[in-house]
Amino acid sequence: MKAAVAHQFKAPLSIESLAQPEVKPGTILVKVAACGVCHTDLHACHGDWPVKPNLPLIPGHEGVGTIVAKGDDVNHLALGDKVGIPWLHSACGHCEHCLQGNENLCPNQQNSGYSVDGGYAEYCLANADYVVKIPNNLSFVDAAPLFCAGVTTYKALKVSEAKPGQWVAIVGAGGLGHLAIQYAKAMGLNVIAVDSGEHKLSLAKELGADYCIDYNEHNPAEQIQTKFGGVQAVVCTAASKAAFSGAYHSVKRGGKCILVGLPNDDMPIPIFDTVLKGISVIGSIVGTRQDLIECLDFAAAGKVKAIVQTQPLENINQVFEQMQHNEIQGRIVLTME
Ligand code: NAD
Ligand code: ZN
Ligand code: ZN
User: How confident is the prediction for the chain on average, in pLDDT?
Assistant: First the structure.
C-alpha cells in the first residue's frame, strides 16, 4: 500500500510502498478514502511536544474509509461500513476516566498517527471499539475533518458551558477554528473570530462570525474588552503562545478560557486577576466517542460543514509547508486515489 512516512523529525515525509497491515482480534482494516491534515500532524512530524512519537510513523488522525477486513471477534461492525479513525485509537476501558465516560483522558490511550500508524495511507488498522460510523449523507471528504477538528471544537464549546445568547471568542480560525465558529453559531452563541488576513477573516464572516478581529492589526483582548466588555468564554485554537495570553485577557469576570491549541510553550497567567475575577483556565483534549457522534450529527443535519480543499497524498509536504505559513483556508483533506 502507498503511505506517507515520517522517518526523521523536521524532514519531509516520504511516499512509500509498504505491506498492508493485517487484522488481529479487536481490530478492523480500513481502506482509507481520505484523511484530513491536522496541525497536530505537523507537531508530530517536527517532534514539537515533550512526548515524542516513535519513528518511522504514518501520521494522520482524520482518516475515513470503508471496512475491508475485521477480526473474528468484531461483531458490531460489518465489512463495507464507512467509519472514521480518530486521534483516540484506543483507551484502556477500565481506569477511573474510562469508567466515567471520559476516555479522552485515559492515561493508557494510544493515538492514531502518533503512537500507532494513522491515516496517511491507503489502508489503516484501527481498534474496532474506537472508530465511529459516518452518517450516510456525509461524503468521506466532508466527514474527515470532523474526526479531529470537529469533535475537538464541539467538545471545547461544551466544556466552556457558554449559554445561547452569550459571547464567545474563537482565537485561530484555521482547521479547528472554522468549525468552532460554526458549532458555536449552531449552539446559539454570538461569535468573535480572531485570526489574520482577508482570506481567513472573510471565511470566518461567511461561516457566521458576528465580529472579526485581525490580530496583526489590532490587539484582540483590548478590542474585546472595550467593545464587548469581555466574552463569557474563549476557545484558543491557535498554535502560538501570543494567542494564549490574548485569549486569557479576553474573558470577562467569571469567564472561561479553554485551551485547545498546542504550541510547546508556557502560558503566563496572572494569579491576582484569575482569583479576583473568578476566571477558569481549562484544557480540552479532543472528545469522546459520544462527542464524536453528536458532532457528526450536526453535520449530517446540515448545521455545520467543513470547508475543504483536497490534495493527493503525494502533496503532503507542500500541504505542511502551507500550514506552517498559516495559508490554508479551512481544512486540507488528502485523498488516496
Ligand atoms: P491550523 O494551522 O489549521 O489553524 C491555526 C490557525 O491559528 C491559523 O488559521 C492561524 O492563522 C491562526 N493563528 C496563528 N497565530 C494566531 C494568533 N496569534 N492569534 C489568532 N490566530 C492565530 O491548525 P489546526 O489544525 O486548527 O490546529 C491548531 C492547534 O490545535 C494545533 O496546535 C493543534 O496541535 C491543536 N489541536 C489540539 C487538539 C486538542 O484536542 N486540544 C486537537 C486538534 C488540534
Ligand atoms: Zn487533530
Ligand atoms: Zn482508561
Answer: 98
Predicted local confidence at residue 337, as pLDDT: 82
Task: Dig out the grid coordinates for 11 from the structure.
Answer: 524532514
For residue 259, the ligand 1 atom closest to its alpha carbon is 41
In this structure, whether the domain defined by 150-283 belongs to CATH 3.40.50.720 is answered with yes
Question: Of 42, 112, 176, 257, which is best to mutate to test ligand 1, by the most ligand atoms within 8 angstroms of its C-beta?
Answer: 176
DSSP string, 115-165: TB--SSBSEEEEETTT-EEPPTTS-HHHHGGGGTHHHHHHHHHHHHT--TT
Q: Where are the domains of the chain?
A: 2-147+287-335, 150-283
How do residues 57-70 score in pLDDT, each as one tens digit? 999 999 999 999 99
CATH topology of domain 2-147+287-335: Quinone Oxidoreductase; Chain A, domain 1 (3.90.180)
Q: Does ligand 1 lie within 6 Å of residue 159's CB atom? A: no
